[in-house]
Structures are given as structure tokens and as C-alpha cells.
Amino acid sequence: MALKAEYIWVDGSTPTRTLRSKTKVIYDEVKSISDYPEWTFDGSSTGQADGEFSDCILRPVFATNDPLRGGNARLVLCEVFNADGTPHATNSRAPLRAVAERHKALEPWFGIEQEYTMFQNGRPLGWPENGYPAPQGPFYCGVGADEVFGREAVEAHLDACLSANLTLSGINAEVMPGQWEFQVGPLGALEVSDQLLLARYLLYRVGELYDIAMTLDPKPVRGDWNGAGAHTNFSTNTMRAPGGIKAILDAMPKLQARHDLHIANYGEGIERRLTGKHETCSYREFRFGVGHRGASIRIPLNVEQAGRGYLEDRRPCANMDPYIVTRLILESVCG
Ligand code: ADP
Ligand code: MN
Ligand code: MN
Ligand code: MN
User: Fold this and answer.
1) Which residues are CB-neighbours of 108 under 8 A, at least 6 positions away?
2) Any residues with Cβ below 6 Å from ligand 1, and which?
3) Poorest-confidence range of 68-72, 213-217, 285-289?
4) How much is the mean pLDDT over the chain?
5) What's the CA-to-centroid distance between 102 and ligand 1, angstroms?
6) Superfamily of domain 100-334 in the CATH hierarchy
7) Which numbered atom of ligand 1 lies nearest the CA of 239?
8) Which fold has domain 3-91?
């Protein structure tokens, strides 16, 4: 039977690149990722080429079953290449491949907490037509129709991710009503990033079914409302081994030394989100601390108590590019 393969890639939109996809019906048998044919698309419509030489190349790198279409259907994540075979300027996965390879002896793991906000009729889901909901407080990990909004879509997304064999580690309702989180990992840098992009893709697709616009805006509502981040948890085999807290603390000055570079690459709108309020540290400062949710880097309490584990980089925004964030952390901490 013919296979419906959804080719998914990252475009050239500014200031934040977004996902694009189109369907290829494949009649030949496909057994492994290398059996998926390369394909082309019109880069002049995605911010990736001008009109004259507009063909860009899609090269499949990761595939899994498509739980929403069901049957003989696959999600096929692709890297984008130029006609001459070099990686496209928007292809942030290509540089990560080399960096991940260089540091593989350290067995780096990443766990990413993807926050997002549901919108309907131009406002966050569950918000009144005029004015604002009750102040933040009861919504985080809330339960009950007056405190959580959109749970049905959240559950459908979790089921879809698990059916697609994506390694989610949990979900929770967030501090701002209409805001939610799912976590991917822990996995290697390429794996967590590939899976995060497919989980985002499934989030948008589930949103279509419920007429909800899923957004990764890092500060969807101005004022006294939490922003949306993508906390990135990181460890090496040394950090996870007994006494690993020393390696975790050793990472702090290295991360501090490249703070500005990280901030500049952690998602558009980071200045709107990292204000120093709402469980953030100002983007102008670098601070770390145990169990400190107002820090740039948090060492979880259980990690300090165990003397080993991982660190949490709280700076990345919800709209960050995981290939860039994981590469910068690897280069800063391990490089
Ligand atoms: P928080 O308390 O910050 O909300 P979460 O439970 O939402 O934490 O997310 C923690 C993340 O850390 C999960 O994605 C989990 O997979 C990941 N994680 C757990 N252990 C490690 C580790 N040793 N290295 C990297 N990531 C890890
Ligand atoms: Mn979390
Ligand atoms: Mn969160
Ligand atoms: Mn967190």
C-alpha cells in the first residue's frame, strides 16, 4: 500500500523560523531512513531562496509513524540543503551534527521543557472576552474547569507523541491560564531536538483539530503574566556519576563567560521574557543557585542532595531552536 510521508522542515521565517510540511506519496518499499527519497520545495515561498534559483533540497534524517493520520503514514523530519549539496544557511542541525560527534564520549543528555500557550478568538484559551482572568496562583498544575483550559487537546497531544514513539517525560498546566508544558528527554542533542520538533509539529496538528492556535511566543501577554520558556536540562556522564556536583559547578563559570552569546541565540523576544520577574533572572545578569527559580541556571534541590545529576538552563525561550541551544551548551560546557 502507498505510504503517506509528511516531509517536515524548518523554514527561513524571521525573526523566528517555523515548521513547514508537505506530503509525499511513496510507492516503493521503505525500510530505513535512507530509503526515503530526497525531495525539493520552493524556497522563495519559505524565506529560503529568491525567485530565480528557488529549489531547495529536503534530505530525510528522522522518521516515525504519524499517529494522527494513522495507517500507512509517517512523519519525516528533514534537513534543508542548497542545490550544490551544502547545508542551507537556515539548517542549524548540520553544525550540531559535528559538535555532537566531537563530544559523544561524554554521553551528553538533554531534557527540554516546552511551554506553549493556546489561543482561540485572538486571546488565550479560557480568558474572558473582556478584561482578564483571576490573578495567577491557582492555575499551575491546576485541576477543575475553573482552573484549567484545553486539557482535552493536551491529552490528545500526549497520546499522539507517545504513539509516535517520542520520549516525553511529562506534561503540566502552567502558571498563566491557557499555558501548558510538555517535556522531551532525556536524550542526546540531536535526538532531543529532532523529537522536540516533531512534538511541536504534532502540537500544531492537534490544535487544528480543536480550533486552537498553539503558540510559542515567549511573552504572549504583556504585564503581570508568566512568559513561556523552554528550560533545557543538561548532564554529562561525569555529572551523573557519584560526586558529579563538582562537574556541575565547574560548568557555571563557562556558561557565565558566554552568557551574552547564549542570550542572543535563545529565541526572539528574550528581553520581553527575562525581566527578573515571573520566575526569571534578567537577561542582563547571570546567576545560578540551588532550587532557585529566579536564576539563569538552577541546580535542582534533589541534585544537590544526591551530589550528582544535571543542571537546568532556564534562559531559553519557548520559541528557541533546539539545535542551536543544545550546540551552544555543548560548546560552552564541554568545549
Ligand atoms: P521542573 O522542575 O524544572 O519543572 P521538569 O520535570 O518539568 O522540571 O523537567 C525536567 C527535565 O529534566 C525532564 O525533561 C527530564 O527528562 C530532564 N532530566 C532528568 N534527568 C536528567 C539528566 N540527568 N540530564 C538531563 N536531563 C534530565
Ligand atoms: Mn517543568
Ligand atoms: Mn514550566
Ligand atoms: Mn524547569
Assistant:
1) 100, 188, 189, 234, 235, 236, 330, 334
2) 109-111, 113, 169-170, 183, 185-186, 231, 233-235, 240, 309-310, 312
3) 68-72
4) 96
5) 24
6) Glutamine synthetase/guanido kinase, catalytic domain (3.30.590.10)
7) 23
8) Ubiquitin-like (UB roll) (3.10.20)
